[in-house]
Each structure stands twice: as structure tokens, then as C-alpha cells.
Amino acid sequence: MDATSQRFLMCRPTYFAVDYAINPWMDPTGPVDADLAIRQWERLRQVYRELGHTVEEINPVPGLPDMVFAANGGTVIDGKAMAVQFRDPQRADEAPAYRAWFEAAGFELYDPKHVNEGEGDVLLAGDVLLAGTGFRTAHASHAQLQEVFGYPVITMQLVDPRFYHLDTALTVLDEHTVAYLPEAFSPGSQAVLRRLFPDAVHATLADAEVLGLNAVSDGRHVVLPEQATDLAAKLRDRGYEIIGVDLSELRKAGGGPKCCTLRLRRQGEADN
User: Quick one: DSSP state of residue 88?
Assistant: First the structure.
């Protein structure tokens, strides 16, 4: 297994809080340790750098506690960046902040025609884009993704509100392999996944419930929540090197390593 050097965009959780509830993980009445969230995020950033990846950062904006979840800020492939349109008004102001960053960074920009929550629901898997729908990203956005990026788009219907983004129910391990929770998908989507990825790793519900599938892989190393022990063991058996991290504070808002990490693919850069 060969690791590929990757470039990520992250946002420090300076203003992290759980002030509202827009997914089943969020409880505004519960305690949140913002300092701990920052330390856990810093450890994740350190892990990426130790693996040889490049981490770029966008400045956090006061009043946007979920801006730390950079994966929702856009989809970036081959030097093209599709900006986002959030379903929930609480996150709406994140979209222009990320769009401005892409523009300043020199990406070819495209504006969404429909609700589209970025790489939270759009995952490049080899030569296809897996695109989630059912809770956040609108199905109508999938046609635009195909037109912009030129990859076949495969719709993935999500059915469990706990796994409201595709990246909470499926992770791309390399260009040929994924791991996923079957019951998070409709029967038809499960059938498609079996056809596309007959050697996929199936996660348990227990591991998905600690956001074990919200992982980041460079083709060899897989960074995932340390609480997802069964999934980690399965991946080790497949030959992957596992790096466990603790993002328990950010999980109070429904986020894990992948949520905090947007892949920046510039023109000509190799993928997994």
C-alpha cells in the first residue's frame, strides 16, 4: 500500500460551541469544553503533518461554531472548487467565508445551484463521485457535480438521521476500497455499493456511533476516532496502518476527523 501526500484545509475551532441542534448529536443543554476541542483539533493537525501532508488553514469567524467542520466548506477536485449552500440557516454564513478562501487560493470557482454541503456528502472514490442525499445535500445537486468535475456521480441514499452526511457512513480507503455501514443506506444504495466495492469493509453500528467511519485515508494510513476499535482491527487486518485520535468534544456537534478535513486537489495532483 502506497501513501499519497495530500493537501488539506482545516479551521481552528476557536469559536466552537453547541448553541443549536441541527442533527441528532447536538444537545445545546450539555456541557462543551472549547479548550479541549481546540487541543483535540491541534492533535489531529499534528498527525497530518507528521504523516507528511500539507495543512492549510482558513481563519475562523466569530459566531460560526461549526466552521471547524471544513469538509462542508466545498468540494475541490482537479483545481476546481464548488462552493456550498447549507440547508440550515445557522451555517449559511460559512459558505461565503469558504468561497472567499477558494477564490484567494486561485481555484476555479463554481457556485451551487442547489443545497450542497461539500465533501461531507461528496467523496471521490477512484473514478467515480459518491454523492449522498436524504438529509442535507439535495439530489438535484448531483447533476451539477457531474457537469463541473466530469466524473460519473453515483447517488447514495442515506436513511438514518444519525448519519446525515455521507462521510459519517462511508470512508474511502483507497481508489478501490471503501468502508461503510450498510444499514445507513437504502436497499438500492446498498446493492450499488456491493456491486462497486465487493471487497469493502463493513463497519459495525457501534463503531459508526462513535463516528468511526468519519475517517481520513492517504491510501496507507487511516486516521480515525480511537474509540472505533473493531473497525480499526478490521483495517489492520487489511494492511492499513491505523492512527487513532480523540475528537470526543467535536463529536458533540456530530463531527470527527473527516468533518474537520477538506481535501484540496489541485490540477495534476494524484489521488489515493
Answer: S
What mean pLDDT do residues 22-47 have?
98
Task: Please pick, among 11, 142, 221, 259, the residue that the annotation labels catalytic.
Answer: 259
Q: Three-state SS string across 144-198, please?
A: HHHHHHCCCEEEEEECCHHHCCHHHCEEEEECCEEEECHHHECHHHHHHHHHHCC
Measured between alpha carbons, how far is 221 from 231 in angstroms, rounded to an integer?
A: 14
Say how far apart CA 246 and CA 123 lie, in whole Å: 23
For the question of residue 260 being annotated catalytic, the response is: no
Tell me the helices (H) and strands (E) count for the chain, helix number first: 7, 15
Give the residues across from 241 on adjacent strands: 221
Look up the pTM and report it. 0.97
Cα Rg, the chain, nearest whole Å: 17
Q: Which residues face 81 on adjacent strands? A: 76, 109
Q: 268 or 55, which is more confident? A: 55
Question: Are the C-beta atoms of 207 and 213 separated by less than 8 Å?
Answer: yes
The string over 62-90, giving b where at least 16 C-beta atoms fall within 10 Å of a residue's C-beta and e elsewhere, is: eebbbbbbbbbbbbbbbebbbbbbbbeeb
Q: Find all residues with CB under 8 Å of 101, minimum gap 6, and list them.
A: 9, 58, 73
- Average pLDDT over the chain reads 97
Q: What is the residue type of 177?
A: T
53 is annotated as an active-site residue: no
pLDDT tens digits, 151-209: 999 999 999 999 999 999 999 999 999 999 999 999 999 999 999 999 999 999 999 99
Select which of 53, 142, 165, 221 is catalytic.
165
